[in-house]
From TrEMBL:
One Pfam family here: Glyco_hydro_1
InterPro entries assigned to the protein according to its UniProt record, in alphabetical order: GH (IPR017853), GH_1_N_CS (IPR033132), Glyco_hydro_1 (IPR001360), Glyco_hydro_1_AS (IPR018120)
Coiled-coil residue windows: none
Protein name: 6-phospho-beta-glucosidase
Length: 477
């Protein structure tokens, strides 16, 4: 393969604070959403259904995010390993409740701010560019229990205060920002993205879309503040993206697939990049009884302060059929369609479709014509430590090789792609199930679903493979 990646391409890895930091009660941090989500299969049931009370029950459940992989105390060791791989960028998030423990305070927590100062300084020491998500599934618990999460317009102001605090503090250390992680996923799982459990399944859509509107307003406020406070900064949105295929060429199925793609893939992108609600929402809102509380000035704000780039996660495509049976359903990353007969699946049932990444890049760039940044992609799998201590994860190498080849093809197609940060570059806690056995990393962490483990770090075979990919700027895969 010829070198198809531009000079200065941002190769690296990605994590989220709540999934690797641990230290949940250290440094003045307050409790957040992730701290009250138990580990194991019960977690997915909680985030998928109404009725969660956001309380901990340590007698019944284990809470793996409390310690996670202890990045809070081991960040220097981990960043040194990222540097050894050759990372140009590290996509991370800031735990909102480290900065404002309850979320509604007037003044920030200095210990929390100082922690991220140390992290950014360590990254810069190794020549690694931080790419920072402001809110990544970790809204302060107090904002959930006292205000009802993003359903409440007051949370917009609390987020604005947090964003401005971060921009002012780190204006000389962070250039690339993203406002909300996988913002469109909130339509399906408002607990993770919007910090509330719907009153009922019947009210979920109305509540979620109102919460999303509040996040759109908050995002535009952050774009404005970021540009004012940090000249030359790049403020992006972040979507979970999956191209939607029709199961066949029956027009009813094709139309169904198009409508699914519009609402899931393009609603949030259109508002944040084009600055307005797309035309298809008028009919959707009417037919579903959606009435948004849009305040004076909201639509002007959205139009005037759009994002500079699109960050997105890509794990799989999605195949749709208008009428489907339970037997036909496929597993997926917060969404599911029907099984695609042309694709293989991971151990967790996620279908593997590298060509879908090329399709996604072309679709996004054709629609928006802003730079794109793949900030999550990877294979969750069970890794075995051999008797000699090695981890031979050839399956991960194969997965990543095919997806990086697809990226190269998309660049040849004319797509402006600025970077790639592989998800879970070091093993961490799964967001959807709280598992540690679902590993994505180039770096193995000796930590297990039952809480046991030494936290020792080990390099997998993929570590050395990715090291060479970065060293050759993608020309050797």
């Amino acid at each position: 393969m010829m070198n198809q990646f531009p000079k200065g391409f941002l190769w690296g890895g990605a994590t989220a604070a709540n999934q690797l930091e641990g230290g949940y009660d250290q440094g003045g941090k307050g409790l957040n959403l992730a701290d009250v989500l138990p580990g194991g299969k019960v977690r997915y049931s909680i985030i998928s259904n109404p009725g969660f009370d956001f309380k901990m029950d340590k007698e019944q459940f284990h809470y793996p995010n409390h310690e996670a992989i202890d990045f809070y105390n081991r960040y220097k060791e981990d960043i040194a390993l990222f540097a050894e791989m050759g990372f140009k960028a590290y996509r991370m998030s800031i735990a909102w409740s480290r900065i404002f423990p309850k979320g509604d305070e007037e003044a920030p927590n200095e210990e929390g701010l100082a922690f991220y100062d140390r992290v950014f300084d360590e990254l810069h020491k190794h020549g690694i560019e931080p790419v920072v998500t402001i809110s990544h599934y970790e809204i302060p618990l107090h904002l959930i229990t006292e205000y009802g999460g993003w359903r409440n317009r007051k949370v917009v102001g609390f987020f604005d205060r947090c964003a401005r605090t971060l921009f002012n503090r780190y204006k000389n250390k962070v250039k690339y920002w993203m406002t909300f992680n996988e913002i469109n996923g909130a339509i399906l799982h408002p607990i993770l993205g919007l910090g509330f459990s719907p009153d009922s399944e019947e009210t979920r859509l109305q509540e979620s879309l109102q919460g999303l509107h509040h996040q759109f307003v908050a995002s535009s406020m952050a774009v404005k503040a970021g540009h004012d406070i940090i000249p030359g900064s790049q403020i992006g949105c972040m979507l979970v993206y999956a191209p939607v295929y029709s199961i066949d060429c029956q027009p009813a199925n094709v139309m169904h697939a198009l409508q699914e793609e519009q609402m899931f893939n393009y609603l949030c992108g259109d508002v944040q990049v084009r600055g307005e609600y797309p035309a298809f929402t008028k009919r959707f809102f009417k037919e579903n009884g959606i009435e948004l509380d849009i305040q004076d000035g909201d639509l002007e704000l959205l139009k005037q302060h759009t994002v500079d780039y699109i960050g997105f996660s890509y794990y799989m495509s999605r195949t749709e059929k208008k009428v489907k049976t339970d037997e036909e359903k496929a597993s997926g990353n917060i969404f599911s369609g029907v099984k695609n007969p042309f694709l293989q699946a991971s151990e967790w049932g996620w279908e593997i479709d590298p060509e879908g990444l090329r399709i996604s890049l072309n679709q996004l760039y054709d629609r928006y014509r802003v730079p794109l940044f793949i900030v999550e992609n990877g294979l969750g799998a069970v890794d075995k430590v051999e008797e000699d201590g090695s981890i031979k994860d050839h399956y991960r190498i194969d997965y990543l090789r095919e997806h990086i080849q697809a990226m190269g093809e998309a660049i040849e197609d004319g797509v402006d792609l600025i970077g790639y940060t592989s998800w879970g570059c070091i093993d961490l806690v799964s967001a959807s199930t709280g598992e540690l056995s679902k590993r994505y990393g180039f770096i193995y962490v000796d930590k297990h679903d039952d809480g046991s483990g030494t936290l020792e770090r080990k390099k997998k075979e993929s570590f050395y493979w990715y090291q060479n990919v970065i060293a050759t700027n993608g020309s050797e895969l």
